[in-house]
Amino acid sequence: MTGAEALAAALLAEMQSAGAVPVAADILQPAETLLDLYGEDIRARAYVTHDPDLGEMMLRPDFTVPVVQAHMRIGAEPARYCYAGPVFRKQTGGRAREYLQVGYEIFARDDPARADAEVFALFARLLAPYALRPVTGDIGILKAAVAGLSTSDLRKTALLRHIWHPKRFRALLERMGGQGPLAEARAGLIARLRATPIDAQIAQAGQMVGLRSEVEIAARVARLIADAETPPIPQAEVAALEQLLALKAPASDALSTMQAMGWEALAPALDRLAARLEALAQAGIDPATLPFEASFGRTTMEYYDGFVFGFLPARDDLPPVATGGRYDALTAVLGQGQAIPAVGGVIRPELLEALT
Amino acid sequence: MSLKLGVPSKGRLMEKTFDWFAERGVQMARTGEAREYAGAVDGVAGVELVLLSASEIPRELAAGRIHLGVTGSDLVRETLADWQAQVWELAGMGFGHADLIIAVPKTWVDVETLDDLDAVAAAFRAERGFRLRIATKYHRLVRDYLRAHGVADYQLVDSQGATEGTIRNLTAEAVADITSTGETLRANHLKILRDAPVHCSQATLFAARAADWSGAAPVLRVLAARLGVAMPGDLVRTGVEQA
């Protein structure tokens, strides 16, 4: 057994003593489910192979999806699972392509704050011997902030879709505030679309080719024209959102800062944060020193929609040793209507070993 | 020891490559019969000409089997993962220009930019239950570009030729392909998005990081001086003793 495997076994044993049931997952996973969840990007990250009967398959890029699926098939509630095994990711340069993950997941309907705190406190305890910097965040607060903007549902949906793509999110926000090159391009487009009836424009453009129909084109034109009537998102709100996204502070301070912003739409999400911090305090984690970064998880953790956390090495160029968070929406997608609140995380033993 | 220089083995790309070197005082020629892939170089001692298909040159560079190679900058970026870790880009050669662009049907009067394409992709997926398909053979370049611009809800479908026809054949909604004049796109009722191209390609002289430079570095130093290109920084000291 290698050092990392021994570490993985020890971590898994700790997770079992914490009450988790060990689960196994196939290394070969159907590509379609993963593509559906993660989009085309997953092809750049996961190894794709082909089975004559089963079609396109992927070497497991993580455990979350198979563990959620297993729970949906057989699980009793509440449930705690743990697992250990290799995952496979395409990398460039010297980074590992195949590495171990040890994970812990809780599926429970009541008291999400306590489940969040349980996972984080367990990870903090298991990782205490190593010099790591914990970070926490909350995607739910960002979603609430977007939902609370004074603008149309269409625009909110567009922004929510891109919370995990900061560059496009910023560009959209700028356009919806009536600023920048995209707003200018959009104004030009709207003027052209308004100039003559749309069916005439389509006919004039040439021969119809492809699946997207005149009806779909006309429907989007109608949405674009309606959207052009929507007033710009007020600059004060854009500024407040930017300020929120940039917030980095100890968790207790971050909470009071956000409460002091007086943003009514944030209240339920901030109540959840307050309950989580209380649960963390009860679990022995001090919110007065626990780092909170509002944008943490935005670029890397697409399926998380609430609490997110990471344990980072001192060196910036190394990947996080552990990451996790809440993914309630993912279970709804995978459960085809069934949903269960879920929170969990993974540790990478090879990275831990390298730290010792 | 000689320096191996890989150049395209036929067509305009070969002729233009020969011209480019000739203009800088390095004469190249194919030797033997017209069908024999052999060549010779005059003007700099120790350069061995290797005639290869342009599409194989990136791989040969990555493997270090040739020291220098002339090929399209698009092919190197598409074929080699983390291409900058594998080759040095010595000089753009000013020919073989072609842009990798994204095109959609002209009748999409509501689509002019990537911003529009992204919105259409979201609506398309919601409406039809699958992701908008973009046909291309440049998977890496297109995916990197769309990721960098935060476009979501699309999928790439592979098309190794006649890509513009995939939309008519209902196997894709948009295409990403190389174009120099846009003629084929127009003939297939397509238009180019107004954003900057995915990549502006041209014939480029590359050097292989993985090649054995111990004997070849002094040859490159002479050749680089003749061609008026800078030595790769990492190679400046290599082989100085032997020279």
Give a short account of the largest sheet of chain B. Answer: 6 strands, mixed
Helical proportion of chain B, percent range: 25-40%
Name the structural class of chain A: alpha+beta
Largest interface: A-B, 44 and 46 residues
| Shape label of chain B | elongated
Largest sheet of chain A: 7 strands, mixed
Instruction: Give the overall average pLDDT of chain A.
Output: 93
Count of alpha and pi helical runs of chain A:
16
Radius of gyration of chain B: 21 Å
Description:
The complex is a heterodimer of chains A (356) and B (243). Chain A has two domains: 3-25 and 60-145 and 240-355, 2-Layer Sandwich (BirA Bifunctional Protein, domain 2), CATH 3.30.930.10; 179-231, no CATH class. Chain A is built from 16 helices and twelve strands. Chain A has helices at residues 3-17, 31-38, 41-45, 64-74, 112-127, 139-147, 153-161, 166-176, 180-195, 198-205, 214-229, 235-245, 251-260, 267-282, 328-334, 349-355; strands at 21-22, 28-30, 48-51, 55-59, 79-88, 98-107, 132-138, 248-250, 291-293, 307-313, 322-326, 342-347. In chain A, the strands form three sheets. A seven-stranded mixed sheet of chain A has the order 1-5-6-12-11-10-7. In chain A, strands 2-4-3 form a three-stranded antiparallel sheet. Chain A is globular, with a radius of gyration of 23 Å. Chain B is elongated. Chain B has helices at residues 11-23, 57-63, 73-79, 114-128, 139-148, 165-168, 183-187, 216-227, and strands spanning 3-8, 27-30, 39-42, 47-52, 68-72, 87-92, 98-105, 132-136, 154-158, 174-179, 190-192, 199-201, 203-208.
